[in-house]
Specification:
Structural class: alpha+beta
CATH class of the largest domain: Mainly Beta
Largest sheet: 7 strands, antiparallel
CATH architecture of the largest domain: Roll
Distance between the termini: 28 Å
Number of helices: 4
Number of strands: 10
Strand order of the largest sheet: 5-4-3-1-10-9-6
Number of domains: 2
CATH topology of the largest domain: PH-domain like
CATH superfamily of the largest domain: Pleckstrin-homology domain (PH domain)/Phosphotyrosine-binding domain (PTB)
Length: about 190
């Protein structure tokens, strides 16, 4: 077994969620629509100008949407240390977990940088690769979870021997082993 570790950047998501800029523009558009409608009640002769303004703004919103529909999906948060997998244990940031103290290990590695995401109308479509997580349950009952980034689609496969070693030590289930090694893109 190799003596070096395999490292990934740990991502710490924050609870704050930002409203997409397209939604802010839509709210401003609706407020402008209400204001102009009220003004049109007073000044009926500007109806043609209002309709042209409506078409212009609708066209700009459509252009903005089409231009940014393949943008990055930035999850609010920050990178905070790294997770390193070794034969003798796992180091998360500054915390060392010896392999003997780990009861269960579960890894979800389905996300990677530039992964195309199927999402709804208001969200961008390319991932930054931080949706991967690792859940560790120690023999003392403590549970740890952290998110990490994969730079490319099969990055965990470079530590395939180590993943098989974890499965032989009965801390990684066979089902999770198959998910990591056979279906890294799910």
């Amino acid at each position: 077994m190799e003596k070096t570790g395999y490292s990934f950047q740990v991502f710490q998501p924050t609870n704050q969620t930002r409203m997409p800029i397209l939604l802010w523009i839509l709210i401003a558009y609706l407020l402008l629509f209400v204001a102009i409608t009220v003004a049109l009640i007073i000044w009926y002769q500007y109806l043609f100008v209002f309709l042209l303004l409506q078409l212009l703004i609708t066209g700009l919103l459509y252009f903005f949407y089409k231009k940014n529909q393949h943008g990055f999906h930035f999850i609010p948060g920050r990178f905070d240390g790294e997770i390193i997998f070794f034969e003798k244990g796992i180091q998360i940031k500054d915390q060392w977990l010896p392999i003997e103290h780990i009861q269960n290990l579960e890894i979800d590695n389905g996300d990677f940088l530039y992964k195309y995401m199927y999402s709804n109308l208001f969200h961008p479509k390319i991932s930054i690769g931080v949706g991967n997580n690792i859940r560790i349950k120690t023999k003392s009952g403590k549970q740890l979870q952290c998110y990490f980034q994969q730079q490319y689609d099969n990055e965990m496969m470079r530590m395939e021997k180590l993943i098989h070693y974890y499965q032989q030590k009965n801390i990684l289930t066979h089902k999770n082993l198959i998910q990591i090694t056979q279906h890294p893109f799910s």
